[in-house]
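User: When convenient, might I ask for sequence and structure tokens for a protein?

AI:
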Amino acid sequence: MTRDASPLSPTTDQIVPHQATAWWIAVLGFLALAVSFSARAALSLAMPLWAKEGWSLAFTSGVGALALTVVALVAPLAGNFLDCRGPRPILVGGLLTLSLGMIIVACSHQSWLLLPGFSLVAAIGFGLVAQHVVATAIAQVTSTRRGLVTGLATSGSTAGQLLLVPALAWLMQDGNWRTGFAALAAAGLILAVVALLWLKPVARQARAATTESGPGLGLRLGALVRQPVFQALFWSFTICGFTTTGAIETHLLPYAAWCGLPPLPSAAAYGLLSGVNLLGMIAVGWLTDRLNRPLLLASIYVLRAGCFVLLLATGSNLEILTIFAVVFGLVDYATVPVTASLVASHLGLRVMGLAMGLIAAGHALGGAAGAFWGGWVAEKYNDYTLLWQASLALALLAGVIILLLPGKTNSSHATAGRSTQPGESIP
């Protein structure tokens, strides 16, 4: 088949509708993301234990920030490789790399070993076993119920925090943090073997889709950055990272303590946020297949902005914090399935991995900026008000940016029950 000259035009050889395969990828992606995001969260669990051993808190915090930067660098490379070779080598390699990093950390007897173990090796694994990889892999093998399948699969990122993080905390409760990291290494190795065997059909499809050489990386990258749609999705998702990973995941519990709220109820509210987050991703994935997606995504950002109004009014009121946790949980990771669907329909499957990788990198950098700037503001003014006000304004800005997107037909809904014809672009 002759390929379309445009690097952003998807072609039939890259759209292989296979709902059963999509569900297999969804199950594996769910489990892989649960392990990956739990491994990322294990750093914060171990930090108090490392402090008791005399390891600098500033140093271990820097380890986390450096890991996030490595994730941002790896994400576009992972996406580009996924476009060319499919998800099997990415997920297998990512799980193996993550496991190796966890082993290095588990064997560390000096703090400096966290840099190669967590901030480099494990962080490469985090960048490979990521939401954008799973979302792209699903889009490449199905054109029906794409939003729902993506929402279910990527919800593993928050399910891990609900199920695995408490288990890790239990393993580390006696100060034996090495056991927790060793358990994560074992889980990653097991899943790597499963992915190697489970994704053979997907690997065959990927080889078939790449028998002819497509446009080079430079052409695809140049075509992407010139697209207003890509710019809108990139900057809105960067803001998403600032307001979630940066502002809330990093500073919500310190803010609750600053307000004088007890640690246990505050932690319970954060756990509630994670639980609702899981439901929110699945629900929005289902809605993605049925509603105007730019309007849906813009509404998520506007509702998120409203959450920061609640946070500004929290003070020492635990009830308001609980209400915030429920509402914010609904819109926390809910941007992922909608954004992935918009990339597939507006930019095309041929470059979806690269596009999602760049967008994920923006999210990571936005998160790093929110975490750092929020800490600087809190320390300088002994107050989080400026952080919440900035997050509110940025979330509204993201909503406005998304409203400017053209409302193309949702490919998941429009192409349900039929295959893409030769030369036809997914709408």
In short: The chain has 19 helices and no strands. Residues 344 and 352 are 6 Å apart (CA to CA). The longest helix spans residues 19-52.
